[in-house]
Amino acid sequence: MPALWACGGEQSSTASGGSAGAPSSVAAGQGGVVNAGGAATFGGAGSSNPSSAGSSNPSSAGSSNPSGQAGLGSVPAAGSGSTGVGGSGAGGAGMTAGSGNSPGAGGAGPTSSGCGSTNTTSACGAKGTTCSLNVSGTDRQYYVQLPKDYNASKPYRLIFQFHPWGGSADQALTMYRLNTGLPDSIFVTPQGLDAGSNGPGWANTNGQDIAFTKAMLADVKGKYCVDTARIFSVGFSYGGMMSFALGCEMSDTFRAIAPMSGALYSDPNCKGTGPHVAMWGSHGMSDTVVPIENGRAARDKILQENHCGTTTTPVDPSPCVKYQGCDPGYDVTWCEWDGPHGIPSFGSTAITAFFKQF
Q1: Share of the chain above pLDDT 70, in %
Q2: How many CA atoms within 13 Å lie on the side-chain side of 51?
């Protein structure tokens, strides 16, 4: 799998550069790379890339970030959310024939076994306090954040948040900023395993991260009230790749995904499980970490699965487009923006709006 690094945030405050391959392949002055540990690893001094060492970007190495971690700077605050997957929901519109899944906007789907349970608080909802599961002999950690006014009799949207390579679950708690717009949601934020020289990621070796996701999902559905027709995934870089992998391998479970600067590195074959999955995706046109061609290839796989056409229509925010002809209920929105390897400034707002339609 190609090497990549990604521990960034929005372009306006935390967009990060990176490197695919060995350090020698990066030209001096091309742009710095700051990993989660705060070390600038690639790129020459004086680069105009916002993530370069010594830049004024709050996420740069040597910045005044109180956490002392470059690349985490002014990442947004995370929160709770709700989602679900599964069968069609009452009142849902635009179901795909034969899918038995994916209600339209506003549909409430089947509920999980945790509805009505006595669990009304999360044991691992605070930063630094994780839950743990043993998956095939490996201990895995994750956070579960419930809505502020969680009610065990109400089914909630469930949102998985996957961190970038070299990042952490602690970082992903705050970098996607979905809690403000989606306060009535349950958030699950997992910690990746070591994926090579850049640290934790989502290599999904032998399907271990897919298995981890299934185990987390079963745990959360058993303890809390989940709308199983509204389960979502969001992630940047390696987190985006994991979101693509879930769209490929668990499309019978996930209603929609929102990969940013992703590719098929976590699931190169992307064989799909059917039915399909709706998607909002973005990629920087000057991304030197994950080439945009690889992001487009992953996008095209989803377009193929959703039987979309090649015609697009502009949608807000610009420069996003919506593909026409997709199966009803399985929209694909794609945003190629003028920037590097990072989260676009409009990312959190646009993803919030996209998830709300389901």
Answers
A1: 68
A2: 38
